[in-house]
């Protein structure tokens, strides 16, 4: 089974090929806003280097965000089209899940910069030692003000939490100040690695878990939680 | 890029063979797919419009449009292939609009076209949307004689072009400020007539007197350029002045007079060019080409030159992909292919 | 009491001058809310600021399509929420995505955005005193707006 992973959700442009549990190749390139120019040429290159043709693919996995909406649509469109042309299954996977799945630790807090003193976060728990299950999602992806994270994670203040991703030092500082026990993940787990997406994708697809390519879309984030409503202070004259 | 390096160079066909192109378009608020055979023969032309969704906002909202394009992408492609009765494997090339338009939307079909190109190992063709609108005429009226003059008028463009044949053109003049369609939209909004502005103004003008108010026509000397910004301002000033005087405004008269001023400006440059260039036909394109007053006025004026005025039928006036496929065919013959690294250009010029 | 900065401008030229000064003193990314009745100079200030960021093209009020993007040396996003009725509609137009950009964002008629804003924005109130005269008040939340107000008070 040959699975192609595509991730254009963040500044990292990721492409990987996994063949039945064996990683064939991987690109992770930090490119600001050039995904539209770079994705397909890179895909052509990885196919050529590995002497693979697009029609050899058995499945595709794609990151669904959070991230730049335009970036997300580039990756998702590519996955949809491959799914449609070759009638292969496609699985969309949240970007923060890819990050968390690529790190170690019993409790993992994955972060992406949402700017303006906020982060996108998701919180996961490692599966039982001898199971091949996926990491368990405790809090799904959402946007939050960094200052509010201690409150959000309050139930886990006694556990050791591994923090990965953008703004990890800043968030770590805030959590430490609230007496959380934290650990920082390794730098290579701070971005959604394409190889991890390929691994997750293959595992999901092997279990028959795929998405309807006609419905597949980016995870457009909903209303951020626990923001202050400034209506009273600025709303009237 | 050089054709000799292309992976698909052995598959390329020549003019005497049948060439099938899948064309995609998502530059504004229509998601569209078409299959063209040998350029002007349209085997399928599927358009899914979002106009209703954007109506409420009085204009196209980029993010909403992009989301819709992603949602509609596969359904329109499926329908186009089904109507044409062909499979992906039968395609000789894939084309998509590369600009002008809203980047987020353009990238949906451009990325899809790139993926198809890579997956099927067929050429990718990036097409200028404005050129598409012009070629819509050649689909509808294959008998058009060359050389010709083309006036392309839409919400983003007002260009006067000269075509020796269908492979290339020369730009004689363009707008130095607002496009004609933009002026219609802005005045329509100003008068509270709704969106899109062209049809709204035209409807209001039907019962009005176009001589009622004498709005200025821009005079740019000998050039073939256009200007609508001054006209827009004078309409607004007129309304504000009348309101201040406590006079009621006759919207129909106002719309008719404004429309006539736009028509006059467009016509005067076109007729000047007709005098100078010895052409066999005159062609209108772009959303504003649907304006009946413009058509009837030009037809009347062109009679004395014994020239026929061509314009695309209504279904080809709005954005569609068949027109993109028509341009793509001529680019295919010229081996004018795009690399997979092509990006969307929101302000791509002709 | 919150810190603020106020200025009275006597002409549209002076209002424009304020827009340029504002652009020179803010840090990027920045979120700038412009509140004021029709014709008080919201678009004028945006245009003046955009010119400082290297954008020389046309700047008109995006009432027409809610959002316009200008790219000069810096990315500029210009929104006008006049046509929206509900805060939820802001999410549909990609508000979250815009907040997540390394851009200077100007928002005219910003009331509906208030429930969605991070604690980091500059709020500018424009009041018409006479035909040409405006009272401009700058307030805001977060470190960036505090710094901006400090700089404005020092400079003017």
From TrEMBL, chain A:
Residue span, Gcp-like domain? 32-230
Write down the Gene3D superfamilies for this protein, in alphabetical order: 3.30.420.40
One GO BP on record is:
tRNA threonylcarbamoyladenosine modification
Pfam family for this entry, one? TsaD
Which Gene Ontology CC terms are recorded?
A: cytosol
Matches recorded under PANTHER family? TRNA N6-ADENOSINE THREONYLCARBAMOYLTRANSFERASE, TRNA THREONYLCARBAMOYLADENOSINE BIOSYNTHESIS PROTEIN TSAB
Please identify the protein, giving its name as recorded.
Answer: tRNA threonylcarbamoyladenosine biosynthesis protein TsaB
Q: Which organism is it from?
A: Halanaerobium saccharolyticum
Organism lineage reads as: Bacteria, Bacillati, Bacillota, Clostridia, Halanaerobiales
Automatic annotation (TrEMBL), chain B:
- Give the EC number(s) listed in the UniProt record: 2.3.1.234
Question: What Pfam families has UniProt attached to this entry?
Answer: TsaD
For this UniProt entry, the molecular function terms from Gene Ontology, in alphabetical order, are: iron ion binding; tRNA N(6)-L-threonylcarbamoyladenine synthase activity
The cofactor remark states: Binds 1 Fe(2+) ion per subunit.
Name a single GO cellular component: cytoplasm
Q: Where in the cell is it found?
A: Cytoplasm
Cell cycle recorded as keyword: no
- Provide the alphabetized UniProt keywords: Acyltransferase, Cytoplasm, Iron, Metal-binding, Transferase, tRNA processing
Name the residues that bind Fe cation.
129, 133, 319
Q: Sorted alphabetically, which PANTHER family does this protein's record hold?
A: TRNA N6-ADENOSINE THREONYLCARBAMOYLTRANSFERASE, TRNA N6-ADENOSINE THREONYLCARBAMOYLTRANSFERASE, MITOCHONDRIAL
Q: Give the function comment from the record.
A: Required for the formation of a threonylcarbamoyl group on adenosine at position 37 (t(6)A37) in tRNAs that read codons beginning with adenine. Is involved in the transfer of the threonylcarbamoyl moiety of threonylcarbamoyl-AMP (TC-AMP) to the N6 group of A37, together with TsaE and TsaB. TsaD likely plays a direct catalytic role in this reaction.
The name this protein goes by in its record:
tRNA N6-adenosine threonylcarbamoyltransferase
Organism of this sequence: Halanaerobium saccharolyticum
Question: Source taxonomy lineage?
Answer: Bacteria, Bacillati, Bacillota, Clostridia, Halanaerobiales
UniProtKB/TrEMBL annotation, chain C:
> Would the keyword Nucleotidyltransferase be found if you checked this record's keyword annotation?
no
UniProt keyword annotations, A-Z: ATP-binding, Cytoplasm, Magnesium, Metal-binding, Nucleotide-binding, tRNA processing
Q: Spell out the SUPFAM superfamilies in the cross-references.
A: P-loop containing nucleoside triphosphate hydrolases
Among InterPro entries, the record links this protein to:
P-loop_NTPase, T6A_TsaE
Native organism: Halanaerobium saccharolyticum
Q: GO cellular-component terms in the record?
A: cytoplasm
To which protein family does this belong?
Answer: Belongs to the TsaE family.
**The protein's name in its UniProt record:** tRNA threonylcarbamoyladenosine biosynthesis protein TsaE
Q: Is ATP-binding tagged as a keyword?
A: yes
Q: Which domain of life is it from?
A: Bacteria
Biological process GO annotation list?
tRNA threonylcarbamoyladenosine modification
For this protein, the record's NCBIfam families field holds:
T6A_YjeE
| Compartments it resides in | Cytoplasm
Give GO MF terms, alphabetically: ATP binding; metal ion binding
């Amino acid at each position: 089974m040959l699975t192609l992973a595509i991730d254009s959700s963040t500044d990292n442009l990721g492409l990987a090929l996994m063949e039945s549990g064996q990683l064939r190749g991987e690109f992770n390139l930090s490119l600001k806003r050039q995904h539209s120019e770079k994705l397909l040429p890179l895909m052509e290159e990885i196919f050529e280097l590995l002497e693979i043709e697009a029609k050899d693919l058995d499945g595709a996995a794609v990151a669904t965000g959070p991230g730049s909406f335009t970036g997300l649509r580039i990756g998702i469109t590519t996955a949809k089209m491959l799914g449609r042309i070759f009638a292969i299954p496609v699985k969309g996977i949240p970007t923060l899940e890819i990050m968390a799945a690529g790190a170690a630790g019993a409790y993992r807090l994955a972060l992406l910069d949402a700017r303006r003193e906020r982060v996108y976060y998701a919180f996961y728990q490692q599966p039982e030692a001898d199971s091949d299950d996926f990491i368990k999602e405790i809090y799904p992806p959402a946007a939050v003000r960094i200052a509010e994270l201690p409150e959000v994670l309050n139930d886990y203040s006694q556990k050791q939490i591994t923090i990965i991703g953008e703004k990890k030092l800043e968030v770590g500082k805030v959590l430490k100040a609230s007496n959380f026990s934290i650990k920082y993940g390794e730098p290579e787990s701070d971005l959604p690695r394409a190889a991890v997406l390929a691994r997750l994708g293959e595992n999901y697809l092997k279990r028959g878990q795929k998405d309807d390519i006609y419905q597949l879309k980016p995870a457009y984030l909903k209303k951020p939680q626990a923001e202050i409503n400034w209506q009273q202070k600025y709303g009237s004259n | 890029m050089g054709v000799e390096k292309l992976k698909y160079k052995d598959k390329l066909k020549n003019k005497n063979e049948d060439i099938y192109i899948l064309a995609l378009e998502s530059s504004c608020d229509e998601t569209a797919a078409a299959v063209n055979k040998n350029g002007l023969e349209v085997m399928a032309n599927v358009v899914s419009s979002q106009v209703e969704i954007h109506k409420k906002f009085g204009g196209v909202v980029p993010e909403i449009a992009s989301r819709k394009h992603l949602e509609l992408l596969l359904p329109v492609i499926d329908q186009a292939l089904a109507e044409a009765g062909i499979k992906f494997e039968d395609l000789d090339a894939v084309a998509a609009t590369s600009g002008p338009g809203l980047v987020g939307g353009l990238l949906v079909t451009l990325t899809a076209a790139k993926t198809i190109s890579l997956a099927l190992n067929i050429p990718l063709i990036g097409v200028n949307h404005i050129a598409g609108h012009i070629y819509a005429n050649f689909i509808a009226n294959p008998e058009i004689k060359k050389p010709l003059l083309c006036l392309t008028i839409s919400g983003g463009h007002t260009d006067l072009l000269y075509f020796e044949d269908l492979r290339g053109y020369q730009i004689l003049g363009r707008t130095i400020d607002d496009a004609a369609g933009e002026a219609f939209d802005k005045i329509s909004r100003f008068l509270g007539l709704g969106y899109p502005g062209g049809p709204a103004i035209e409807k209001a003008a039907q019962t009005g007197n176009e001589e009622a108010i004498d709005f200025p026509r821009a005079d740019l000397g000998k050039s073939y350029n256009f200007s609508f910004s001054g006209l827009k301002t004078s309409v607004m000033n007129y309304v504000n002045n009348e309101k201040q005087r406590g006079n009621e405004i006759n919207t129909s008269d106002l719309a008719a007079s404004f429309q006539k001023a736009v028509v006059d400006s467009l016509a005067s440059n076109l007729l000047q060019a007709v005098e100078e260039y010895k052409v066999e036909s005159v062609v209108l394109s772009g959303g504003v080409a649907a304006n009946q007053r413009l058509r009837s006025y030009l037809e009347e004026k062109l009679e004395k030159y014994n020239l026929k005025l061509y314009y695309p039928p209504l279904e080809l006036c709005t954005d569609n992909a068949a027109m993109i496929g028509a341009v793509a065919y001529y680019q295919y013959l010229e081996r004018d292919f795009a690399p997979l690294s092509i990006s969307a250009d929101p302000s791509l010029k002709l | 009491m919150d810190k603020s900065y106020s200025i009275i401008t006597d002409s549209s030229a002076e209002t424009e001058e304020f827009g340029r000064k504002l652009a020179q003193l803010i840090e990027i990314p920045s979120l700038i809310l412009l509140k004021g009745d029709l014709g008080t100079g919201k678009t004028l200030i945006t245009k003046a600021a955009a010119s400082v960021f290297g954008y020389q093209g046309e700047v008109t009020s995006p009432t027409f399509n809610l959002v316009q993007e200008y790219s000069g040396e810096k990315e500029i996003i210009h929104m006008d929420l006049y046509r929206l009725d509900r805060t939820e509609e802001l999410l549909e137009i990609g508000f979250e995505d815009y907040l997540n950009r390394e851009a200077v964002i100007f928002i005219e008629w910003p009331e509906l955005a208030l429930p969605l804003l991070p604690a980091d924005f500059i709020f500018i109130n424009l009041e018409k005193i006479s035909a040409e005269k405006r009272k401009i008040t700058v307030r805001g939340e977060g470190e960036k707006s505090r710094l901006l107000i400090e700089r404005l008070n020092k400079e003017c």
